[in-house]
Amino acid sequence: TLKDVKAPYLMVEQFNTSCPHCMAQAPVMNALFAKVQADPQLKDKLKIVGAGQGNEEPQLKMWQAFHKVPFPLVPDPDNSFGKALNFTPYPVTVILDKTGLGDFFEVIAESLEAGAGKPDPAIFLLAQRKLGIPRENCIIIEDSTNGIKAAMAAGIYCIAFNGPGSEHQDQSEANWRISRFSEIIERINGISYY
Asked: Which of 20, 21, 29, 151 could form a disulfide with 158 if both were Cys (CB 3.0 to 4.6 A apart)?
């Protein structure tokens, strides 16, 4: 069960042993597993498992031997995992968060549900509709060029976070740029901590 996984995050690769796309994905997942295992900060935080959609144990054993898969594979003969998450095509990779952080979010919007990814504004408009808040009362904090473009196209105020990893992103379209989240509180309170 999920409780038996001794890590805060579980990556599940849903695949089928007769899928040509899954065959192409197998070495990519093996390489990802090797990188996670080699990283001391990730090794105990992220576990990887494969779910064989429509597959039985014998098919998975052959798949594991042929593709030299180093992580566990679980048969899903009736596709219960895929149905539960509304994933029908494969391969599909999903990360399950066991930390409980999801409890702090009132709604969750994702690009599959929205119908398009960034820079299309659909993801932000979906979140705004789910929250039931007018656009003029929303703020989006983004660090990527495409995310900022999506926020602006949605007509929602956008704060660009200029932090580590965003050095090569064009954040010029954002309404405001910050390099510390405390800058937001400082502006609200009219004070500076630094």
From this structure: 151
- For 117-124, the CB contacts below 8 A with 24+ separation are 117/146, 118/144, 118/146, 118/147, 118/149, 118/150, 119/145, 119/146, 119/147, 119/149, 119/150, 119/153, 120/150, 120/153, 121/150, 121/151, 121/153, 121/154, 121/155, 123/150, 124/150, 124/151, 124/154, 124/156
> Rounded to whole angstroms, how far apart are CA atoms 157 and 147?
12
**Whole-Å CA distances, 147 to 115, 131, 167, 172:** 15, 19, 15, 12
Flag whether pLDDT at 133 surpasses 90.
yes
Mean pLDDT, residues 38-67 taken together: 93
d(CA 118, CA 180): 24
- Cα–Cα distance for residue pair 133/144, rounded to 1 Å: 24
Q: Are 91 and 14 in contact (CB under 8 A)?
A: yes
* CA separation for the pair 148, 141 (Å, rounded): 8
Contact 130, 107 (CB under 8 A): yes
> Mean pLDDT throughout 65-88?
84
* Claim: this prediction has a pTM higher than 0.90: no
The first and second tokens of residue 27, run together, are 């070495």
Looking at residue 176, what DSSP letter applies? E
Residue listed under structure tokens 């039931």: 132
